């Protein structure tokens, strides 16, 4: 779950929620009530926090820091001369997750009796280890890099608010690779080519072009060789682009094995009075709501058994006829696109010829 998303989304009148003492509480509000909603649906969550970022990620983090500094300047300017919408837009872009935010969320989870793990580096990589070992059903994240870390199942939109009405996406890695007709290493190369947390994408290369390049050449080494030897110089590899290091981070990330003692976890009964002390007395939450939520959580922990996700978000497999129909529609779409491209080229050629005759 992204603490950042709560700091951005959980707001009142465009501003983050604050306690009476001026402390931000949006992250706690989001974590508390979203976790309750998950547990209410019979799902027993395990949270994984990021550890120290890999060195290769420092460039991306530096860019994010620069963008936030720029947004801070734009935010101050908007407060002087801009509209309310501009002020809120730039305010959201200045949000930073601090060490204190992380520590408070961990304290909250302890009091709720919800287990969590702090990963050595990337949380998504640690989630993938636990999912492969069968300790959890899936990894829930909005980061598609989770699949490159070899998580068998990725869940997206699991923690979205009900107002967004986004359906839960359940993505299976084996079916994804089968559909793309490539192995995992090629999939990693494809993701690197399109840009990831460690490297920028190659300019002018979109999803369709990247997929074609990997299919035609097999590996990123061959793709780079093709691009650099192309006399037309259609694409250009960035100067500092250590794609082999990025690939290594996906293939062999710094993680704890699933049988490591630090990966042992269990759900406990919530500390109701501890939650009241923290959320009500220290952070200014409504006591009746906190006690009611804590009692509901206590009841769910006692009675609920871990349920398969299909029990709440039922997946309906496509029939063979439906699969054939989808394939036919895709082929027709491709054929129509090719036909349109030829017609456009013909029209362009005829227009050019007419212009030449008129001149």
UniProtKB/TrEMBL annotation:
Compartments reported by the entry: Mitochondrion; Nucleus, Nucleolus; Nucleus, Nucleoplasm
Sorted UniProt keywords: DNA damage, DNA repair, DNA replication, Endonuclease, Exonuclease, Hydrolase, Magnesium, Metal-binding, Mitochondrion, Nuclease, Nucleus, Phosphoprotein
Chain residue ranges for the region called Disordered: 320-359
Cofactor binding: number and manner: Binds 2 magnesium ions per subunit. They probably participate in the reaction catalyzed by the enzyme. May bind an additional third magnesium ion after substrate binding.
GO aspect biological process, one term: DNA replication, removal of RNA primer
InterPro entries hit by this protein: 5-3_exonuclease_C_sf, Flap_endonuc, HhH2, PIN-like_dom_sf, XPG-I_dom, XPG/Rad2, XPG_CS, XPG_DNA_repair_N
Protein name, UniProt field: Flap endonuclease 1
Native species: Cladophialophora yegresii CBS 114405
